[in-house]
Design a protein that fits this description.
Rossmann fold, four-stranded antiparallel sheet, binds adenosine-5'-triphosphate, 273 residues, 37% helix, six-stranded mixed sheet
Length: 273
């Protein structure tokens, strides 16, 4: 098992302006995070609202820099964004004036792939996410789930080493969400990509993750990493109702419970301040 991603003592502080005093104060979003992710692994981060999940993913995506500590990808410190990482956000972030095909090709334009190959590759990845026949549709002609499939195809098409997913299914209805979870697991099995996936849904974390890292309330730290030892998810008929699944769900809920109530108290303090 080779380590592909390592967070070492990663801390991120933001400077925020106090409304009353108008002074800038430091605000610690995540603190002292240590986490290793192996090549080809599917790791899920869960934590209460505002605990710094997106901040960790932004740091790994190179969209922002740690205040302390270091993140390495394939042994090299992350210092900015790169095509070795594909990011999928909750909001589809598709170009409305381009077709599904055009959106996936857009992701390839920065990589220098010749035009003809771009078209073939875009078709191949739209097919992989189950959108064969929808290539010429514009985003407004697609359902939410389909748009998110286009976003996933776009991220996969330029062949990143790592797929970073920030609550990609949160805005979808329950059924679409479950079918996309299966789709994602199949794609992960076929492509062997390393996936770092953020969610605050415990079921989603248990269903998808080979390991689930539970974060504390703000400032976010890794509270515990839980290995999920369930047999091949997609080949089981109703894994979500199995007793093993329920045990993992309970274990993670137990770890999260105190953190969620602490996060709610913190939010009230901020509102009351
Ligand atoms: N650029 C910024 N400047 C100041 N504070 C920020 C900035 N970005 C994030 N924060 C704060 O850092 C904390 C962590 O935010 P983050 O979005 O990472 O949390 P999260 O766990 O992803 O939350 P949620 O589950 O609600 O999406 C929050 O309190 C947020 O307000």
């Amino acid at each position: 098992m080779t380590t592909q991603i390592s967070f070492r003592n990663v801390t991120k502080r933001f400077l925020v302006k106090d409304r009353e005093s108008r002074r800038r104060t430091e605000f610690t979003a995540v603190e002292g995070v240590d986490l290793d992710v192996a090549r080809g692994e599917f790791v899920v981060l869960v934590g209460p609202s505002g605990c710094g999940k997106s901040t960790l993913l932004d740091l790994l995506g190179g969209l922002t820099e740690p205040t302390e500590g270091e993140i390495r990808l394939d042994g090299v410190p992350v210092t900015g964004p790169g095509l070795d990482r594909g990011i999928v956000f909750q909001q589809y972030a598709l170009l409305p004036w381009r077709t599904a095909q055009g959106n996936v090709e857009f992701g390839l334009e920065a990589t220098g792939v010749p035009r003809r190959q771009r078209a073939d590759r875009a078709r191949e990845f739209l097919d992989l996410v189950g959108l064969k026949g929808f290539e010429e549709r514009h985003p407004h002609q697609l359902s939410g789930g389909m748009r998110q499939r286009v976003a996933i195809a776009r991220s996969l098409a330029y062949d990143p080493n790592v797929l970073l997913m920030d609550e990609p299914f949160a805005a979808l209805d329950a059924q679409t969400r479950e079918s996309l979870q299966d789709e994602l697991l199949r794609i992960w099995q076929r492509t062997g990509k390393t996936v770092v996936f953020i969610t605050h849904a415990i079921d989603e974390a248990v269903y998808l993750g080979q390991r689930v890292a539970v974060l504390t309330s703000r400032p976010g730290r890794v509270k515990q990493v839980v290995p999920i030892e369930l047999a091949d998810r997609t080949s089981q008929v109703d894994l979500r109702s199995s007793s093993a699944f329920a045990r993992y769900r309970h274990q993670i809920w137990d770890l999260l419970r105190d953190e969620v109530s602490r996060a709610q108290r913190q939010e009230k303090e901020v509102v009351g301040a």
